Amino acid sequence: MTRFLIGSAIPFLLLAAGCDWGSSIDLRNESGSVVAEQIRKVAAGNDFAQPGRWETKITLNQVDAPGMPAGFVEKLKTQMRQPQAAASCLTSEDVKKGAFYVGEENQACRYERFAMGKGRIDGLLRCADQMGTRSMAMSGSYARDRYQLVVTTDSQSAQQTGAAGKVSVTMTMDAHRSGQCLGTEGRPLTRL
């Protein structure tokens, strides 16, 4: 479940770094593939995000895991009290290809809603498979050179029903373009 909790937030690290373009996306009950394609279309036709060095800070706001040992949850909270930071280099080619979107394209997942435009982003992704059920809600604001996004994930294990198998995490992601790439950054995650 940890992959979903943290990994599914990654698509929006550079996705929401967006733009002031007039186009917007407003989708209901769509797959990750459809959402990705719509974002790539917008990115290909506009000055979607500013290439350069992007610095991202992820802050864990809340963890609720009633089925996990209290010591484990406290250790996680202690480790995450300090914001996690990362830097990546987004090239002009990355922007043109929409290479910053690496969201859930799993057949077991659907975006109940995904809307992005006029400096706001809002979405709800739901997944159900043999591992259990998961949801990820996101809401935030963006401009061409910065964004802030609050992400809440809720997971329910198929192996442990009820409170014992439930995990809920809320985090805030803040990012900004800090200048030209220095060559020391990581690359944006991509499947292209």
Automatic annotation (TrEMBL):
It comes from the Bacteria. Pfam families: DUF3617. This is DUF3617 domain-containing protein. It comes from Sphingomonas kyeonggiensis.
